[in-house]
Amino acid sequence: MKKFILSLFASMLLTTALWAQTQTANPVDAKVKFKQETIDFGKTKLNKPVSVDFEFTNTAKEPVLIETARASCGCTTPSWTKEPILPGKKGKITANYSANSVGQQNKTVWVRLKGVDQDKELHLTGTVEQ
After folding, report:
1. Fold designation for 27-129
2. Sorting pLDDT into bands at 50, 70 and 90, what band is 3?
């Protein structure tokens, strides 16, 4: 009986661990591979805008389409490849940051692929000086 209970407990623990692992994997990662998910633009002067490109490759067997990209604030404006990206081909999301606030910056861009219900987070960091 002890062996049965231990065996049952071990099975439940393994099942829970596998379920947790599948819940944390982002489904976007199964379709595209970003060159960088965080880009540090370094230092810039106040009100001197910066622009960074988040480049990615379609690793899926079918074309992928970016449905939308949205930023964490109005000071960051994303634009992206609008046409479907064929397997093995590259696309990009450009984040334009207005640099209108002094100090350390950490901005987020959420990307949604067509047919995928979870967003992918990309981060833009840097420092704005007077």
Report:
1. Immunoglobulin-like (2.60.40)
2. low
